[in-house]
Amino acid sequence: MTSPRSGVSEGTALAGAPPEAAGEGAPIKWSKVDSFPGNSTSAALTTHRPCPICGSNRARTILQFDQFQFYSDSDKLPKRADLKEVQCLDCFALYLNPSYSEYGFQVLFAEAGCSYGSTAGHTQEQIDWLGARGFLSAGSRFLDAGCYDGGFLAKLPDNLERIGVDIDEPAIERGRRRLGQQKVQFIHGDFENFRVDRPLDTITMFHVLEHLPRPAGVLRNLRSMAHAGSRLVVEVPVLEHGITNDINGFFSVQHMTHFSRTSLQNCMASAGWRIQESKQQEEYNGFRVVGVPAEPVDAPSKDLKATSLSHEYFAAWHQALHNVERRLSSIEDTPRCVLWGGGAHSEFLYQTTSFFQRSPGREYAIVDSDPLKKGKSWRGITISSPDSLREISWTDACLVVSSYGSQSSIVKVAVDLGVPPERIITLYEAFRVY
Description:
Blueprint: E1 46-47, E2 59-69, E3 80-88, E4 94-96, E5 99-100, H1 102-108, H2 120-132, E6 141-145, H3 151-154, E7 161-166, H4 169-179, E8 185-188, E9 200-206, H5 215-224, E10 226-236, E11 257-258, H6 261-270, E12 273-281, E13 286-293, H7 306-329, E14 336-340, H8 344-352, E15 363-367, E16 377-378, E17 381-384, E18 397-401, H9 407-416, E19 424-425
Parallel strand pairs: 6-7, 6-9, 7-8, 9-10, 14-15, 14-18, 15-17, 18-19
Antiparallel strand pairs: 1-5, 2-3, 3-4, 4-11, 10-13, 12-13, 16-17
């Protein structure tokens, strides 16, 4: 999924792709799925944690994926992990456990891109919203936690004292080079331990908290740098707004904690923040709150609606899987198939549908415009440039668009590259913008 803006870094490409993969401009190479034998896992990729909201160690599994592969093949780095989403049996919060270790996050998400991206419209809406509440007053100290390379900070009024913090050192260095003359201060550090020299007036965390293994610890650190008049703005996706027809679903593999409105409130309360204002974004799944300093609450309330909400969500998710399965069944006898998309969506197709299992003799190829993926392979299927589509004879082949939000734009480019429209298989009739 794509968040409206997030400073959470996912690193840069690591070495370790198989040497036989096709490179930029190379011809299509047809392969069988699971034909690369070198992929492995490692216990170092994940680590056990208690409930990130209440600290309980009692939980039940609600969703599990075995040997989920993170992007390209590698015989040098472990790229597969068993994923379990669980529900706390004490406060009913939903979270990934075990969660990714620091090493696991660096390795598994190395090819996910450097940030979740932004749109000019979302960024301007955030700035206008902050300004309307007086959070951008001249001379105030403004911190963006998860700032990436400072793109959001650069658009704020220059009469603020602007500070950004992120764990991504290359992104921080780019920000320093690009915005040093604009007097934006950048801090490379862990969200739980970084410090500033004087209290902060406004702190923002847009779509960051759900990616962190210890969200309450991060909020406590921010509380220690606040004064009585400080305001903390947090936005996360929430279960109440999680229903979609995307097979990736609300339980995104990038997210470590899957908040509801109640679990977010509990997390903030335990760290010494009281929610003063809240807003549900209608255009995408974002629940925005304003927190004010308060006394920490030791015993969080139970999220009594979480179980029924999760059942409602899973009913919709399984319907989405059914719809995708039905569309894919129409090409059961096609001997060759190109997937446009070498990312997590293709892994979800592998994990949740019969697409790769129902036609054992089928050969596959992948095209992807992401430079981090081209020249590699996924489960033995080579990844080439979209330009390679020009050379394919489509009489015995089809193109499956393995993407959600980019489906329409991919179809347009594919047709421009000579793919007959009748040989293009799309998986979604409607879209929900994230």
